[in-house]
Amino acid sequence: MGHLKENHTRINEFLLMAISPTWESQAILFAVFLLVYASTIVGNSLIMLTVTSDLRLQTPMYFLLGNLSFVDLCYSTVTTPKILVDLLSKKKSISFDACMAQLFFLHFVGATEMFLLTIMAYDRFQSH
Q1: Does this model's pTM top 0.70?
Q2: Which of 42, 49, 71, 112 has the most crowded CB, counting CB atoms within 10 A?
Q3: Burial of 118 from C-beta contacts in 10 A (0-12 / 13-18 / 19+)
C-alpha cells in the first residue's frame, strides 16, 4: 500500500484588491476614512474622560458607557489603520498571521461589545 501524498502548501499572505481603481479616488477614501477614524478616537476619548472625571456620573450605567466607548475605540483600531495603510501603498497585502490576529481581535472585541450591551440592557431592565 502506497503512501498518500499530503498537500503542505502554506498561505503566507493575502493580496487585497483595491477598493477603487484610481489613485485619486483612493486618496479621497483615505481622507474620508481618516476623518471618520479621528472623529471616533476623539469622540470616544471625550466620553471616557467625561465619565471618569465627573463625580455625578459615577453610576453603573455611565461606567458601562465609558467601557463601551473604550471597546468601540478598540473595535475601530483593529481594522482601520490597516485600511489606511493599504489605501496609500502600492502593494496591498496582509500576512496570514496578521490576518488571523486581526480576525481574532475583531471577534474578541465584538463579543466584548455584545457582552457590555447585554449588561447595559439588564441594568436598564432592573432599574425600571
Answers
A1: yes
A2: 71
A3: exposed
